[in-house]
Specification:
The structure holds two protein chains of two kinds. By secondary structure, chain A is an alpha/beta fold. Chain A folds into two domains: 157 residues, 3-Layer(aba) Sandwich (D-Maltodextrin-Binding Protein, domain 2); 140 residues, 3-Layer(aba) Sandwich (D-Maltodextrin-Binding Protein, domain 2), CATH 3.40.190.10. Chain A is 44% helix and 17% strand. In chain A, strands 1, 2, 3, 4, 5, 6, 7, 8, 9, 10 and 11 form an eleven-stranded mixed β-sheet that branches. Helix content of chain B is 68%, strand content 2%. Chain B contains 30 helices and four strands. In chain B, the strands form two sheets. A two-stranded antiparallel ribbon of chain B has the order 1-2. In chain B, strands 3-4 form a two-stranded antiparallel ribbon. In chain B, a hairpin with a 2-residue loop joins strand 3 and strand 4. The two termini of chain B are 37 Å apart. The chains are: A alpha/beta, B mainly alpha. The interface between A and B is large, with 75 and 72 residues.
């Protein structure tokens, strides 16, 4: 056999050996909260249990799309974080698996309600209120009045100053869309979105991009969950959080085990661990100001008090259903997204 | 001499004991071809029968039996792939193994597949193809198989997706849905509307970038080769910097400079009360970033052509009293026309394929590459429309590519022959010289500003607000902490960094080898179907990364070849996307090597393998170096190709960084980019050192002429 072929054969053997060595025992996780918290959680789990974690951050909608695409050949074990309605949709499509953790009774009622709604296929791990943050330096210098209610966002002074995410990829933006629909009714909500369209510079992919841009001054206003705004403010940025005075929605960030996961045992180990007070109390250290689901973990002092905020009665079952979600997203695409 | 066929038959025997399926029944031996065949699995019988038949044919060793070997091996190789999964259905572990329900192929089937290909190669040689040279025929068969399985098959899946009928069951309706969206072809921007369709955006951007980079690249190449200045080496290094940078990092630097909170913007606001705007987010920003990022590519191509123009021809022109300008216009320029055309072609196609800059700078400006991405990532994931955009993108790339090839075909550009020649390259006319110097210096200054920003940005606490120097961004990305069970690689960058480094190192030499060997086949061997082979090899060159990514997701997520989420799919995607650069560089080099060199070698009794190794390979060294370096750099810096193929286990540096950018975490993104750039500079310098030591170039001084 010619020499060149021998060399090619050797290379092929090398490839095989490499691929063999690369597969080891590790938890594979999709993570849909902010990068820093994702990483801190993965590292904390490894530090506590010795199990390596291969983690990839994906925006909530993108994670759902990925898990759906991989359904015949799942690549990940667990999906941690991200707005609950996407988790409920995954549950309704049987993309995730029911699991009864011994640690369930340590959780707040709203977390268990999420768990019951989805037939034990997902569980609430944190919650957060929807709102926005604005860049105080920019507003002062331009002499602008801060928006305090949803209707204020129509102000023509804000032209090109608002960033919000694309609800197809972002759980934050879907929560905003569903909130407006529940506040105004569907048709009026879309009219409102069309009216503020001129004020919106960009529909970002990630739900936290807008508020980070507002913090840096790249945009004036970022629509986001308040815990993300508070995180930026705590880091020293000139942003101020606003809970809309005409009422707003909230999310129940959730966790699910992926159906037919490559390593279901590790997934369950992580699930149990992630519900403990020890794991959840680490959130604040990682700069995550979400309200944790474990009853033993006190809410961060900076977090908005739920009782001070005018919350709508968010219908998670309806707005997490595949039917409603697909309908709203399709309409958003047709009337807003594709007009860009 | 023992024919290679026997070795391939032994290989099949070994393969028949290895696990046949990736996720199937049994282990070694029992799960092998033999074990499964004996346990009554009909699906594998044809393979076993084919092996026995081929053994008989090989022993007979006649021309007719060689034909039989060829056909039976082809059928067997096809059966191995087709028996299971061409239906596109996933394997159902609950159902019994059958013809219609098979898992993905495993090591046994893969090895046997290769062995049957080898048998075909040997049979072709036996039939007298390429004068009976088994080296050439093996090469041809393996290369064709790579093209068929990893380029044509995935591409076919994209077309199949486009042809999928719509909800009403109509193929025409499906086609219209997938190809004719108004966000694709809309022309409303001409009539005062907000946006034009993605097709027009992509083409306009590509042409603008192609023209700008070709001009800048030509200026830089002339500056370095034709003007005597002490800045030649620094200029060359600066020109090459963007080459070792992921393209979107340049875009990121532009945001730090010209974004709303960019340093230039804030300076203008404070000093002149110019209200910050978002002008950088749009076509202008994308164009600027792509031009900066892609000029080195144009420069490399033009420079390579320029140095290989034999000075004796230019000298002849000036001896005939042509002015410097006339010499340049009528001799040099026509000779480097292929270089200019290639530079334009390469940068146009790279611009079409670039995903990073449209993602971070595009704002509402969508091009085809980013359109495909948005059709796939969202909750409304629509593979059909993504595939439609992919097909359009492919057709444009391919069209440009064909146009260029036809235009270049008419001329012969052989200027280096075996015969000795020498002389000095011609000087440039004064106005041209002034223009070249001016453009190059201006551009160099801009590049330095961009890179200064990148380096400074990686050490700044918070760009635009707090310029205190810090290492926090690096620590943040590459942190290591102590846990209860040993060290934890807590920095988020480690996983993607390790994968990127390891897989690129693996892919680069394979890519270069395959590309150059294909170039060798095309340029130097005569066989039927050579044109088709060349077209197929070059076609993947015109396939944008996003399309390859999409095609791979469609093709390799189900049996028979189920490799999504593995390291393989990344390595293979790099090889099939970057291999054509090896072909291209190789062909360019071969077209300048007079075939009389090969003939001399053959006359002296060397076989084709030895001629390749001893005569052509040393002359090809620059091409080898270019191909390996390009392949390595391209795979480290690509985004479009990997974005659909990465998994939590095998994340990629660029996808990780773009995630950070998307979350406006600029500090860490840029720190990670600096680490990548430094790493690439070191690797490229190292490769240059070991590969180019025997560089083939014009020699001016006497001693080196003697050693050469």
């Amino acid at each position: 056999m010619p020499k060149g072929l021998n060399r090619a054969a050797l290379t092929a053997v090398g490839l095989v050996a490499f691929a063999g060595a690369a597969s080891a025992d590790e938890l594979v996780m999709y993570c849909s909260v902010q990068q820093s918290w994702c990483e801190a959680t993965a590292a904390a789990f490894t530090a506590d249990t010795g199990v390596d974690v291969a983690m990839q951050r994906k925006d909530t909608g993108a994670a759902l799309a990925q898990i759906r695409a991989e359904a015949s050949n799942p690549q990940a074990d667990v999906w941690w974080g991200g707005s609950g309605d996407a988790h409920i949709q995954a549950a309704s499509e049987d993309l995730t698996e029911a699991y009864e953790s011994p640690n369930i009774d340590q959780l707040q009622d709203w977390a268990i309600e999420q768990y019951e709604t989805a037939d034990h296929k997902t569980v609430g791990i944190y919650s957060g209120v929807l709102g926005w943050g604005y860049n105080t330096e920019f507003f002062d210098r331009m002499g602008l009045k801060p928006p305090l209610a949803w209707s204020d966002l129509e102000n023509p002074d804000y032209e090109g100053e608002i960033q919000v995410a694309n609800p197809n990829t972002s759980g934050t933006a879907y929560t905003a869309l569903a909130t407006l629909v529940q506040l105004y009714g569907e048709d009026e909500a879309f009219e409102f979105l069309k009216r503020i369209d001129d004020n919106i510079s960009e529909y970002t992919q990630s739900g936290t991009a807008g508020i980070r841009a507002a913090a840096l001054g790249e945009t004036g206003i970022g629509i986001a969950f308040l815990h993300d705004v508070i995180q930026q403010a705590a880091a020293g940025f000139p942003v101020k959080a606003v809970a809309p005075s005409d009422g707003t929605g909230y999310e129940i960030g959730s966790m699910s085990i992926i159906a037919n996961a490559p390593d279901p045992e590790l997934a369950k180990q992580f699930y149990d661990w992630a519900l403990t007070a020890k794991a959840q109390s680490r959130a604040l250290e990682a700069g995550a100001y979400q309200i944790q689901a474990n009853k033993a973990v006190a809410p961060p002092p900076e977090a908005p008090k739920l009782e001070d905020t005018k919350l709508i009665d968010y219908d998670f079952a309806k707005y997490g259903s595949a039917e409603t979600r697909s309908h709203l997203l399709k309409r958003w695409d047709d009337e807003i997204g594709s007009q860009r | 001499m023992l024919r290679p066929s026997f070795l391939w038959l032994v290989t099949i025997l070994v393969a028949s004991l290895l696990p046949w399926y990736a996720d199937g029944p049994g282990g070694f031996v029992s799960g092998g071809l033999l074990g499964l065949a004996l346990s009554g699995l009909a699906a594998v019988w044809p393979v076993a029968l084919a092996a026995i038949a081929v053994l008989a044919f090989v022993v007979l060793d006649t021309r007719a039996s060689a034909l039989a070997t060829l056909l039976v091996s082809l059928a067997a190789a096809g059966w191995i792939l087709a028996s299971g999964g061409l239906s596109g259905l996933p394997y159902d572990a609950e159902l019994p193994l059958s013809l219609a329900n098979q898992p993905a192929i495993g090591w046994g089937a893969t090895l046997a597949f290769f062995a049957f290909l080898g048998l075909m190669g040997d049979a072709l040689a036996r039939r007298g193809v390429m004068d009976g040279d088994p080296f050439g025929t093996h090469l041809l068969v393996f290369a064709s198989a790579v093209l068929a399985v990893f380029v044509l098959f995935p591409l076919a899946q994209v077309f199949q997706e486009v042809l999928r009928p719509d909800a009403a069951g109509s193929v025409a309706g499906g086609l219209a849905d997938h190809l004719l969206g108004k966000d694709v072809w809309g022309l409303s921007c001409l009539t005062g509307g907000r946006r034009c369709g993605m097709v027009w955006n992509s083409i306009g951007l590509g042409v603008a970038v192609g023209l700008a980079t070709t001009l800048l690249g030509l200026a830089a190449a002339l500056f370095i080769t034709r003007i005597r200045t002490p800045f030649s080496t620094p200029a060359r290094l600066i020109t090459l910097l963007p080459l070792v940078t992921p393209p979107f990092v340049v875009g990121l630097a532009l945001i730090l400079l010209f974004g709303r909170s960019g340093s230039v913007t804030l300076f203008l606001w404070d000093a002149f009360e110019i209200r910050p705007s978002r002008w950088i987010y749009g076509p202008q920003g994308v164009w600027l970033a792509q031009t900066l990022g892609l000029t080195p590519l144009a420069f490399m191509v033009i420079h390579a052509t320029l140095v290989s123009v034999s000075p004796s021809i230019e000298e002849a022109a000036s001896t005939l009293r042509a002015s410097r300008w006339r010499t340049f216009r009528t001799v040099t320029l026509p000779l480097i026309r292929p270089g200019l055309a290639n530079a334009f072609l390469l940068t146009f196609i790279e611009s079409l394929a670039d995903l990073g800059n449209p993602l971070i700078l595009g704002g509402g400006f969508k091009v085809l590459a980013s359109g495909i991405y948005f059709k796939i990532v969202g909750a409304q994931a629509d593979l059909g429309e993504a595939a439609g955009l992919g097909v359009i993108l492919l057709v444009i790339s391919l069209g440009v590519f064909l146009l260029q090839t036809l235009w270049l075909r008419n001329a012969s550009f052989v200027t280096i022959t075996g015969k000795g020649d020498g002389g000095q390259p011609a000087r440039l006319a004064l106005p041209l010289k002034a223009a070249v110097v001016g453009v190059t210096l201006l551009w160099g200054a801009f590049i330095l500003t961009v890179y200064g920003t990148i380096i400074l940005g990686s050490f700044a606490t918070l760009w635009g607000r707090d310029y205190t120097l810090t290492l926090a961004n690096y620590v943040d990305a590459f942190n290591v902490i102590a846990g209860d069970h040993g060290l934890v690689w807590a920095g988020g960058a480690w996983n993607s960094f390790g994968t990127t480094l390891m897989l690129s190192t693996l892919a680069a030499p394979l890519t270069a080898a395959l590309g150059l060997l294909m170039a060798y086949l095309i340029a130097r061997r005569r066989f039927r179907g050579r044109r088709t082979f060349e077209f197929a090899a070059m076609m993947s060159f015109a396939m944008p990364g996003t399309v390859i990514g999409l095609a791979y997701v469609l093709a390799f997520n189900t049996p028979p070849i189920e490799i999504t989420g593995t390291a393989f799919i990344l390595v293979i995607a790099f090889i099939s996307r970057n291999m054509p650069i090896g072909v291209r560089v190789g062909l360019a080099q071969f077209s300048q090597l007079d075939p009389s060199l090969d003939e001399a070698s053959t006359t002296l009794g060397a076989g084709p393998g030895m001629t390749l190794r001893r005569v052509l390979f040393p002359l090809l060294k620059p091409a080898v170096a270019t191909a390996i370096i390009y392949a390595f750099v391209a795979s480290v810096t690509t985004l479009s190709q990997v974005i659909f193929l990465v998994s939590p286990r095998y994340d990629w540096a660029t996808t990780y960084i773009i995630g950070l950018v998307e979350n406006t975490n600029y500090g860490r993104a840029i720190a990670y980019s600096v680490v990548l750039i430094v790493l690439l500079i070191l690797v490229v310098a190292f490769l240059q050192l070991i590969l180019s030591r025997v560089e083939f170039r014009r020699v001016d001084d006497k001693t080196s002429r003697e050693t050469a």
